[in-house]
From TrEMBL:
Segments traversing the membrane: none
Keywords assigned by UniProt, alphabetized: Hydrolase, Signal
InterPro entries in UniProt: SEST-like, SGNH_hydro, SGNH_hydro_sf
Residues covered by the SGNH hydrolase-type esterase domain: 43-264
Signal sequence region: 1-31
Native source species: Microlunatus aurantiacus
GO molecular function, one term: hydrolase activity
Name assigned to this protein: SGNH/GDSL hydrolase family protein
Organism placement in taxonomy: Bacteria, Bacillati, Actinomycetota, Actinomycetes, Propionibacteriales
Amino acid sequence: MIRRSRRLSLVLAALATLIGLALVTAAPADAGNRHSRTLSYAALGDSYAAGFGAGRYENGCYQSRRGYPALLDAETRASLDVDVTCSGATTSAVLTTQVPLLPHRARLVTLTVGGNDLGFATVATTCAPGPSAACQAAIGQALALLAPRSGGPSVLATRLATTYAAVAAAAPRAEILVAGYPLLFETPTASTPNGATIAALNNATVALNATIKATVAATAAGGAEIRYVDVAPGFTGHGIGSRRPYLHASGPEALHPTARGYRVYAAALTGALAYR
């Protein structure tokens, strides 16, 4: 009888051990299921959203694994399920080609757009040789799109408002983070070559960011879960002309952030996340 009791005890102990091992091995599998503990994330926008300038491009839109969408995917609870960012995208392109691909279930959406609407690439190309009438005309055309019209919103503000509303409607449960743009150049001094042109370009970026920020605030006032993220402070002291720039000064990637610059973007966006 004692032997039988002992055998029964050994069997029960073995079963308990096996059950315990099964539970232990099952737990990591569940914990390792990334999608069970993350939020669905979708990235929209232009070259600054795609990661152009960071290198290691994956497609013709110049998406980079060093861009801020991939960095957020790696460093936060957000799981990058959809990345439709594309270099050259305007507000119109976001509306027509990106928003339709935005998952209804998305819980986080990031967006950077507006610079291409102002023709910043054209402005940069025209102004690169130095001050000229053509350069001033290009800057003037960009600023015209930021100027209020008869007491109403500017052309760009209207485009941005339409874009933000469409994003909020397509992903009604999402937290929408709209990232602005860095100042491209270090603040010029009296001795800086082409200082007046550099100051004009920086001022245009300040005006662009102000328009984005105000339009985001107006959209949020209408009930959307949307916030503006200012990335400019992270680039202070690291503009083109500084000793350690976070933006490319020349070449095909000129006026776009380096890989280090995109880490600044990622840090600013991570700091703005509501679900941290």
